[in-house]
Structures are given as structure tokens and as C-alpha cells.
Design a protein that fits this description.
This protein is mainly alpha-helical. The protein has two domains: about 1-30; about 30-70. The chain is built from two helices and two strands, in the order αββα. The chain has helices spanning about 1-25, 50-70; strands at about 40, 45-50. A two-stranded antiparallel sheet has the order 1-2. The chain is elongated, with a radius of gyration of 17 Å. The N and C termini lie close together (about 10 Å).
């Protein structure tokens, strides 16, 4: 049991490093600017609601947790 937890922590850390490198290099510039993300700007008010971006993020996390439950 402890071995699997250690492996999951290592894989999770590697995924975080990969995402960090993508953000740093500009590989995720499209995220947050998708069609369906609401952006309103006026002189005094700036509102940003990333609906589609968060739906994609939620689907990706759901798939990851489903695969973890399925195979571990």
C-alpha cells in the first residue's frame, strides 16, 4: 500500500513539473482564451469568467481520477 502512495506522489510531482514547464514556456497560452470564456472590460470593471476553460479542466481531472481508481 505504501509503495503505491509513493509512486502516486512521484507521478503527481512529475505532472506538476510538466505543467509548470508548459506554462513557463508559453505552451498553454491558449488556455483561458477559449471561445465561451466570458470577458467584460469597462473603465472601472474587469470581469473574467473562464467557463469553457474550467469545463475542460474539470473533464481532465475527472478522467485522471477515474483512471487512478480503475487501475489502482
Amino acid at each position: 500500500m505504501n509503495r503505491w502512495v509513493g509512486i502516486l506522489v512521484i507521478v503527481g510531482g512529475a505532472c506538476l513539473i510538466l505543467v509548470g514547464l508548459l506554462i513557463y514556456s508559453g505552451g498553454l497560452n491558449w488556455f483561458g482564451r477559449l471561445p465561451g470564456d466570458i470577458k467584460y472590460e469597462s473603465e472601472r470593471v474587469h470581469v473574467y469568467v473562464p467557463i469553457v476553460s474550467m469545463l475542460i479542466f474539470s473533464l481532465a481531472l475527472s478522467l485522471i481520477f477515474y483512471l487512478i481508481r480503475r487501475f489502482f
